[in-house]
């Protein structure tokens, strides 16, 4: 897994570099502070995770759009002073999976990168819960959601509970004392039965069915 850091501030680049495990960093990229909003001149090294310095909030969405266009399978993590619903929701809607403040980056950045690389979310529990519920309020109930839990087997329901806890397949396998391959099989069945392709959509569908709150990492 390779990580790319995008920042226009040399100090933050140096500090971020200290936190990335040796051998995982692909390339840091210092952005031109005079033209930070011009994304057309930015070339992207290949990476599994992009850590974006969010101090230039007006340019972050442009960076995200560029990454999503050229590296659609990559995962995104934004680091900034603070986040609230007004600043976080547009980032989440754009595809960001991780939100981290500068004050917590020293302790949490390595773990956050690992979590985001697995396709899971890393951000304050209350913020992600608010975002999910805002999506539920704005989205018509899926026609197949009511039958999701009824058609699931006992084991699938167990695994679904762990998916709602934002656990990886490896973590679920360890919790249930089964193989990771078995977990993947049951998750695939849940996706097929619910008519969706992503774990995020499965969570939304389960929340619609259960009317429960989302439990996440952190």
Annotation keywords:
10 helices; alpha/beta; single chain; globular; 52% helix
Short description:
The chain has 218 residues and is of the alpha/beta class. It is built from ten helices and five strands, in the order βαββαβαβααααααα.
What features would you describe in this structure?
There is one protein chain. The protein has 218 residues and is of the alpha/beta class. Helix content is 52%, strand content 12%. The protein has 10 helices and 5 strands; from the N terminus they run βαββαβαβααααααα. It has a 5-stranded parallel sheet with strand order 2-1-3-4-5, with helices on both faces. Helix 3 links the parallel strand 4 and strand 5 (98-101). The model is unreliable at 26-37, 140-146 and 211-218 (pLDDT under 50).
């Amino acid at each position: 897994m390779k990580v790319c850091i995008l920042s226009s501030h040399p100090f933050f680049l140096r500090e971020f570099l200290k936190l990335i495990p040796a051998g995982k960093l692909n390339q840091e990229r210092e952005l031109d502070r005079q033209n930070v909003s011009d994304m057309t001149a930015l070339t992207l090294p290949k990476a599994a995770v992009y850590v974006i310095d969010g101090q230039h909030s007006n340019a972050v969405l442009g960076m995200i759009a560029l990454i999503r266009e050229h590296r659609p399978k990559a995962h995104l993590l934004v680091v900034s002073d603070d986040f609230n619903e007004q600043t976080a929701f547009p980032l989440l809607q754009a595809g960001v999976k991780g939100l981290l403040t500068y004050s917590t980056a020293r302790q949490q950045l390595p773990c956050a990168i690992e979590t985001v690389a697995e396709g899971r979310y890393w951000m304050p529990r209350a913020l992600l819960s608010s975002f999910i519920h805002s999506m539920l309020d704005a989205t018509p109930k899926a026609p197949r959601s009511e039958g999701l839990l009824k058609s699931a087997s006992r084991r699938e329901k167990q695994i679904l509970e762990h998916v709602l806890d934002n656990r990886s397949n490896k973590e679920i396998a360890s919790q249930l004392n089964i193989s990771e391959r078995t977990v993947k099989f049951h998750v695939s069945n849940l996706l097929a039965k619910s008519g969706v392709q992503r774990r995020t959509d499965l969570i939304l569908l389960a929340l619609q069915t259960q009317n429960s709150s989302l439990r996440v990492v952190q």
